[in-house]
Amino acid sequence: MIEVPCYNCGSGNHTLFATENGCNLVKCGECGLLYVNPRPKDEEIEEGVKMGLHRGETTLTSTGRYMPLKVAIYNKVLNDIYGTELQTRTRTWLDVGCGHGELLVALKELSGNNVIAKGTEPNRLKITCGARERFRC
């Protein structure tokens, strides 16, 4: 674990805001940003993201599973934002951190295949659990 200054203003002045699984969420005394401090080293964060495992007092998994309910929620949100616009002209969409591909599925459904959607996902388990088959993540 490494001590870090505030990511927003660079201040080292912070107070404890909350603790979860042995990690401290602190609040910057200058700008109010909430951030983890001390935080894992870059290599640990990178490995945790790739494997969906996050170490603390216990190891937590963040891989989850494909959830059709998320597709329905994304359909509603996209419809509220775009209305029928996604169906009227061809667009491209890149979902960085596409997870299991629910947003990409919603885009395909709502647009009538009028959106060329691709995703990228660093979590190897999410990729092998079906995201690749749904869309090229």
Q: Briefly, what is this?
A:
The protein is α+β, with helices and mostly antiparallel strands and 137 residues long.
Give your account of this protein's structure.
This protein is of the alpha+beta class and 137 residues long. It has two domains: 14-61, no CATH class; 68-134, no CATH class. The protein is 36% helix and 23% strand. It has five helices and seven strands. It has a three-stranded antiparallel sheet, with no helix packed on it. Strands 4-5 form a two-stranded antiparallel ribbon. The longest helix has 15 residues, at 68-82. The mean pLDDT is 87.
Topology of helices and strands:
Elements: E1 14-20, E2 23-28, E3 34-36, H1 42-51, E4 53-54, E5 60-61, H2 68-82, H3 85-88, E6 91-96, H4 102-111, E7 115-120, H5 124-134
Parallel strand pairs: 6-7
Antiparallel strand pairs: 1-2, 2-3, 4-5
Helix pairs in contact: 2-4
